[in-house]
Design brief:
Helix content is 32%, strand content 16%. The chain has 489 residues and is α/β, with parallel strands linked by helices. The chain has a ten-stranded mixed β-sheet with strand order 7-6-5-4-8-1-9-10-2-11, sandwiched between helices. A four-stranded antiparallel β-sheet has the order 13-14-15-16, covered by helices on one side. Helix 6 runs parallel beside helix 10. The structure holds calcium ion.
C-alpha cells in the first residue's frame, strides 16, 4: 500500500512536471511570403515590425529551404515530416491522404490540444485536429466561407483579420489544462493581391526599389528558365494586377475598393506600355499590392503576440513563423515560385522560445521545412518516428547545432508545366546548386553560388567544374537513395 501511494505520488508529480515542460506551440504560417518582404531579413523593401519582433526576441534562420516549392505539397511536408514522394502530395492537384501519421495526431497523443485556423488547401478534411476552421480551397481575401468542424460558415470582413479573430476565439474557449498546438495559417500574401480597405494606396507616394535581375534575359542557362510563363511583363494580366477583382464584396466594400481603382484607369494606361517601361509599371503595381497584403499579415501577427502577452501565455509558448515557400518579387522578371532558384527555394523562418532560444540570434545552418514536424515533436517532449525524414531544430534553437548537421539538401518539383516550370530536382550545398531537368529538355545546370549568387549563369559542362559536378552527382544520388526517391518524375 505504501509503495502504491508513493508510486501514485510519483506519477502525479511526473505529470505536473511534464505539463510544465510542454510549452504551447503557435505556428504562424503564410502563403507565398518571400524573405525579401520581411524586414528582419534586411532587404529594405518594406517594414514588418511585428514579425521583426519575433526575430528580435528569438532566432532568424537565413537558410531555411523547402523540398518542393509550391503551396499544398509544402503543407503536406510540414504535417508529415516526409518528402512529397512519400506523403503523396506531389502537386497542388493531389488530395492529401489524411489517414497517414501527422504531427497534430502525434501531438494529441502527447497530451496537446490541437487546432488549425485559416488556409488548409489540401482538399481532404483536416485530421488530427480537435478544432478546424479552414478556408475553402484558396479562399478569398474578403468575406470568406470558413469550414468550422465540417460546417460552412460565411463571414464578413477581411480574411487576414478574420483568421486572427477566429484564432482568438478558439484560444479563449480551449481547455486551459492542456498545452496547445495552434496552426494559424493565412491566405495572404497569395495572389490575387487584394489589400485590406485600410491599406489601399499606402504605397502610392513611393517608388519601390527594383530587384537587380528584373530584366533577366535567361541567356547563359539551359532552356528551362526561358520557357517560363510567370513574367511580370506579359503573364500577370488585369486580374493579377487587380483591375478585375476576385472577391465578392459587400456593396460598402465595393464602393471603397472600386473608388480607389476605377478613377486611376490603370488597365488602360498599362495596355499602352511596351518593353522595359511596361515591366517597370507592372512591377510597381504588383509589388505595392503584394506589400499591402503583407502589411495586414504583420499587423495581425502583432495582435497575436499582444494576445499572448495579455493572457500571460508568452513565456510558455513557442512562436514559429514561416511561409509555404519563398516567392519572386520581380527577380528574374518573375512573380510566383516553383523553381529551385534561391528566391523560391528559401522561405522565412523565425522562432521565439523564451528561456531557451537566445534573443536576437541568427542561424545560417541549412534547415528545411521537412524539419518542422520533428521540431514540434521534440518541443513537446514526444518521440520522433523513425520514418520522418527531417531533423529536429531544437538543438539549433538552443544555439548548439550538431557537428553532423546537413551540408546538402534535396529538392524535387513535380507539377509539370504550372507557369511553364518543368519537373526538376537537384541538390544544394553551401557553394553549389546542381539541377536536373529530365523532360522535355533533358538538361543539367550547375550554379557556382559564391561567384554567382543571383544564379544567372550555368557552368555545367565547363571543364574546370568537372570534378565538382562528379562530386555533386554522387551527393545527389546518395540523397535520393537515403530519401527513397524512386523516379525522376
Ligand atoms: Ca504558396
Amino acid at each position: 500500500m505504501r509503495f502504491f501511494v508513493y508510486g501514485l505520488f510519483q506519477l502525479v508529480a511526473c505529470a505536473a512536471l511534464s505539463a510544465n515542460k510542454q510549452p504551447n506551440i503557435l505556428f504562424l504560417f503564410t502563403d507565398d511570403h518571400a524573405t525579401q518582404a520581411l524586414s528582419a531579413y534586411g532587404h529594405g523593401l518594406n517594414k514588418t515590425p511585428n514579425l521583426d519582433r519575433i526575430a528580435k526576441e528569438g532566432m532568424l534562420f537565413r537558410r531555411c529551404l523547402v523540398t518542393n516549392s509550391i503551396c499544398a505539397p509544402s503543407r503536406a511536408v510540414i504535417l508529415t515530416g516526409k518528402y512529397s514522394h512519400l506523403n503523396g502530395q506531389l502537386t497542388n492537384k493531389d488530395v492529401f491522404d489524411g489517414s497517414q501519421q501527422t504531427v497534430p495526431k502525434l501531438l494529441q497523443k502527447a497530451g496537446y490540444q490541437t487546432a488549425i485556423v485559416g488556409k488548409w488547401h489540401l482538399k481532404s478534411t483536416p485530421t488530427g485536429f480537435d478544432h478546424h476552421e479552414v478556408l475553402v480551397g484558396q479562399g478569398s481575401y474578403y468575406n470568406p466561407i470558413l469550414i468550422t468542424n465540417g460546417e460552412r460558415v460565411k463571414h464578413e470582413g477581411y480574411t487576414t483579420d478574420l483568421i486572427t479573430d477566429q484564432a482568438f476565439d478558439w484560444l479563449d474557449k480551449r481547455d486551459k489544462k492542456k498545452p496547445f498546438f495552434l496552426m494559424c495559417q493565412h491566405k495572404a500574401p497569395h495572389g490575387r493581391w487584394e489589400p485590406a480597405l485600410r491599406h489601399l494606396g499606402i504605397f502610392d507616394d513611393v517608388d519601390i526599389q527594383e530587384p537587380p535581375t528584373l530584366f533577366d534575359d535567361y541567356a547563359g542557362r539551359g532552356k528551362a528558365a526561358s520557357m517560363h510563363k510567370m513574367g511580370i511583363a506579359n503573364h500577370m494580366g488585369d486580374a493579377r494586377l487587380m483591375f478585375k477583382y476576385s472577391s465578392k464584396f459587400t456593396p460598402e466594400q465595393f464602393k471603397v475598393f472600386d473608388g480607389y481603382f476605377r478613377p486611376r484607369n490603370e488597365s488602360f494606361l498599362a495596355a499602352k506600355l511596351e518593353g522595359k517601361e511596361r515591366t517597370r509599371w507592372h512591377y510597381q503595381r504588383y509589388i505595392k499590392n503584394y506589400l499591402s497584403c503583407v502589411k495586414a499579415v504583420d499587423e495581425n501577427v502583432g495582435r497575436l503576440l499582444d494576445y499572448l502577452d495579455k493572457q500571460g501565455l508568452a513565456e510558455n509558448t513557442v512562436v514559429v513563423y514561416s511561409s509555404d515557400q519563398g516567392f519572386y518579387l520581380g527577380e528574374h522578371g518573375w512573380f510566383d515560385k516553383r523553381w529551385m532558384f534561391d528566391e523560391s527555394l528559401r522561405t522565412p523562418l523565425i522562432a521565439r522560445w523564451p528561456g531557451v532560444t537566445k534573443p536576437g540570434t541568427e542561424s545560417a545552418d541549412m534547415v528545411s521545412n521537412v524539419d518542422f514536424a520533428e521540431t514540434f515533436l521534440e518541443i513537446a517532449g514526444a518521440a520522433v518516428p523513425s520514418e520522418m525524414q527531417g531533423r529536429s531544430l531544437v538543438p539549433v534553437l538552443k544555439g548548439a547545432t550538431p557537428k553532423d548537421w546537413r551540408t546538402s539538401h534535396y529538392y524535387h518539383y513535380y507539377e509539370a508545366g504550372g507557369h511553364g516550370v518543368p519537373i526538376h530536382y537537384g541538390v544544394t550545398t553551401k557553394s553549389y546548386k546542381l539541377i536536373r531537368y529530365p523532360a522535355p529538355m533533358d538538361e543539367w545546370e550547375l550554379y557556382d553560388l559564391k561567384k554567382d549568387p543571383r544564379e544567372l549563369k550555368s557552368v555545367f559542362g565547363r571543364p574546370e567544374y568537372a570534378r565538382t559536378v562528379k562530386r555533386l552527382e554522387k551527393e545527389l544520388s546518395n540523397l535520393r537513395k537515403v530519401l527513397k526517391v524512386a523516379g525522376e518524375k
